[in-house]
Design goal:
748 residues, Arc Repressor Mutant, subunit A, Nucleotidyltransferase, domain 5, 5 domains, 5-stranded mixed sheet, 5-stranded mixed β-barrel, RNA-binding transcriptional accessory protein, Tex-like_N
């Protein structure tokens, strides 16, 4: 293992080298990020999830660099061209870009203009010219005219020499580094519509004639321009001024004052830039900006997903779920406190059937029969009409009626997971079940759906899919383990994300539970087939068993520390259950008495905190939300209206808010607060309840502009721009609702 990597990671993250080495050792042994950050604080020096994941990801990058370094050294060695000096440079390369620049002259190539010129014996002439000394060019070139080697003239000889020089210039390591910096720091994205496609490309109208610096282009615009280019609507260029680039090359390559050799080198430099350097650098810069844009988009997606997954749960209550509709009616299911399906039916309170009396009687009967405590109504088609109908029935006051975001419910209803869970139900019934369960426990239900289908991303189909999946998996795992999982009721999908398990062990747990009944203790989990000591160690602290004989089984105290807690209780002459029930008794514990080689104060403090609230759900308490009555469609909106809403999605340019009209409105970054903000997450989060003012309604394009400012129109009746920079253009791509900084998006 390259010990220098530990120094690099420690320096970048500003932590101790020992913290890095010990964390990597745990990771290499199979420990998960949640387990390490929660139960191995003494080993890592109390690193949190963000830091542990940062160490993991950076070390993976460095190991991949090492693999490539080995391949490069082997290739050059096999060519017999590996010198001691070159090997030192390759070993010292700290980035993939530098490594590839060093390898470029030795990289196997297809036949190029330079290789053809070399085959014609023109390399000595190129060497002579590249010295840039004053020579008789024509006389020297005459020596290389050869019918056998197909060099017919002086011009052909000089052209071949320039081809060789151009390739050498392109492979100049220091020049490539400076050129790369020039493209990134002084380059410009220039975007134009492909002639003749103006009408077809209308959704990219903002980019028909657009330019902005590469260095400052926001991720959403980079991804929008790239998508337009991919769909063959836009032409995208990403280069600095040609004059600046060639001037940089001449500054580095040209050594002497003007003479005929210098003139030839200057021609070769221009050819190199246009034919070799520019395409190469543009490709690199486009990859760099794409990666950067991906990271930003993934960061936004991960943070939105975290907020959605950790939305307040209603809890274990009897729920009626309604998937609303017009012609096909409203699919209605009743669920028990554990989410089990008690009944399902269809009612037709809306047009065209409008069987109000019959539908009302059915709802009242079901509410009474199953002692329904809450009614969840999906927020799709006919949702507001169905909500109004249910609220008109005069149901008992204790029955909550609330709207539920149904994004992804249709994806779930057609999935293998849903078919396996409800093989005898059709898609609409499965969708209604998902809506009801999402109210009861958003986290437990949403893990069954592909995160990309939940509707909280930004260009999720355009970003690196592997990086996106890794980030979202990390986010889901963090949320699931942060909340904890009741092992006797959890689905296979929820258990899959528990530290140390995975899909196979999750299924084995469900199978064991079905065959043997509920787990009575955490120790019984060891009886699950293929669940060994290592998996148990990783998972046990995150699994809960309510009403177990040992009260610690319902807490986040790890079984490896049960003896320690029992010792605390014994020292005070009480039982563990008394320790958990009484703050007065716990206050008598002197944690320093229990510090050992394996257990330090961080773990002891965690244990004491957990004893005070064993197994408590860390999510917020559920609050009922209602949209504005009488505002059901976009046609009901008027500029100036103040309305309640729920944040459904956050992007870099603003937040989308559901105001109950089947079309989310956009609160642009410049209208999210009275003060200047750089990022929407400074003031809003997904599922947050907000009050907005309607600023603009475009019924034809179904666009709604909203504001969260206290005085959105300013003193002169126009939207105030005092506290914000110039409003960015928002791309019309049709996809609005769909390193360490990135990791903070995963694990904030």
């Amino acid at each position: 293992m390259n010990t220098n990597h530990f120094l690099i990671v420690a320096g970048e993250l500003q932590i101790k080298v020992k913290q890095v080495t010990d964390t990597i050792e745990l990771l290499d042994e199979g420990a998960t990020v949640p387990f390490i950050s929660r139960y191995r604080k003494e080993v890592t020096g109390s690193l949190d999830e963000v830091q542990v994941a940062a160490i993991r990801d950076r070390m993976q990058q460095l190991r991949e660099l090492d693999k490539r370094r080995e391949a490069v050294l082997k290739s050059i060695q096999e060519q017999g061209k590996l010198t001691e000096e070159l090997e030192k440079k390759i070993q010292a390369a700290e980035t993939m870009a530098v490594l590839e620049d060093l390898y470029l002259p030795y990289k196997p190539k297809r036949r190029t203009k330079a290789t053809i010129a070399k085959e014609k014996g023109l390399e000595p002439l190129a060497d002579l010219i590249f010295t840039q000394d004053s020579i008789d060019l024509e006389a020297e070139a005459l020596n290389y005219i050869s019918e056998e080697k197909e060099v017919a003239s002086v011009d052909e000889a000089l052209q071949g020499a320039r081809d060789i020089i151009a390739e050498r210039v392109n492979e100049h390591v220091a020049l490539r580094k400076k050129m790369r910096d020039l493209f990134i720091n002084e380059g410009t994205f220039t975007c134009k519509v492909i002639p003749g496609k103006e009408e077809e490309a209308a959704k990219y109208k903002d980019y028909f004639d657009w330019s902005e610096p590469i260095k400052t282009a926001p991720s959403h615009r980079v991804l929008a321009m790239r998508r337009g280019e991919k769909e063959l609507f836009l032409m995208l260029d990403s280069c600095p001024e040609e004059f600046s680039a060639i001037a940089l090359m001449e500054e580095i390559i040209l050594e002497n004052a003007a003479n005929s050799s210098v003139d030839q080198v200057r021609l070769a430099i221009k050819d190199c830039y246009k034919r070799l350097m520019k395409p190469s650098m543009e490709t690199e810069v486009r990859l760099y900006t794409k990666k950067k844009a991906d990271e930003e988009a993934i960061k936004v997606f991960a943070e939105n997903l975290r907020q959605l997954l950790l939305a307040a749960p209603l809890g274990e209550k009897s729920v009626m779920a309604i998937d609303p509709g017009f012609r096909t009616g409203c699919k209605t299911v009743c669920l028990g406190p554990q989410g089990q399906v008690l009944s399902y039916d269809a009612i037709f309170p809306n047009e065209p059937q409008r069987k109000l009396a019959e539908a009302g009687a059915t709802v009242r009967h079901l509410v009474e029969k199953f002692k329904i405590e809450a009614i969840a109504i999906g927020n799709g088609t006919a949702s507001r009409e169905t909500e109004a109908f249910v609220k008109s029935l005069g149901l008992p006051k204790h029955v909550i009626v609330t709207m539920v975001n149904e994004s992804g419910a249709s994806i779930y209803s057609a999935s293998d997971v849903a078919r396996e869970e409800f093989p005898d139900f059709d898609l609409t019934v499965r969708g209604a079940v998902s809506i009801g369960r999402r109210l009861m426990d958003p986290l437990a239900e949403l893990v069954k759906i592909d995160a990309k289908s939940i509707g909280v991303g930004q260009y999720q189909h355009d970003v690196d899919q592997s990086a996106l999946k890794n980030s979202l998996d990390d986010t889901v795992m963090s949320c699931v383990n942060g909340v904890g999982v009741e092992v006797n009721t959890a689905s296979k999908q929820l258990l899959t994300y528990v530290s140390g398990l995975g899909s196979v062990l999750a299924q084995n747990i469900v199978n064991y539970r079905n065959e043997n009944g509920p787990f009575k203790s955490r120790s019984e989990i060891k009886k699950v087939p293929r669940l060994g000591d290592k998996a148990f160690e990783q998972a046990a602290g995150f699994l809960r068993i309510r009403n177990a004989k040992n009260p610690l089984d319902a807490s986040a105290v790890h079984p490896e520390r049960y003896a320690l807690v029992e010792q605390m209780a014994a020292d005070l002459g009480v039982k563990v259950v008394d320790l958990m029930a009484s703050e007065e008794i716990r206050s008598k514990i002197n944690l320093k008495n229990y510090v050992s080689d394996n257990v330090g104060l961080p773990t002891l403090q965690d244990i004491l905190e957990e004893l005070s609230k064993p197994g408590r759900d860390p999510r917020e308490t559920f609050e009922v939300f209602n949209f504005q009555e009488g505002v059901n469609e976009i046609t009901d909106l008027k500029v100036g209206m103040k309305l309640p809403g729920i944040v459904t999605n956050i992007t870099k340019f603003g937040a989308f808010v559901d105001i109950g009209v089947h079309q989310d409105g956009l609160v642009h970054l410049s209208h999210l607060a009275d003060r200047f903000i750089k990022d929407p997450t400074e003031v809003v989060s997904v599922s947050q309840k907000v009050e907005v003012t309607v600023m603009e309604v475009d019924k034809a394009r179904k666009r709604i502009g909203l504001s969260m400012k206290s005085d959105p129109f300013g003193e002169r009746g126009k939207p105030s721009q005092k506290s914000q920079p110039k409003k960015e253009k928002v791309e019309e791509s049709g996809d609005f609702a769909s390193k360490l900084a990135l990791l903070k998006g995963k694990f904030r």
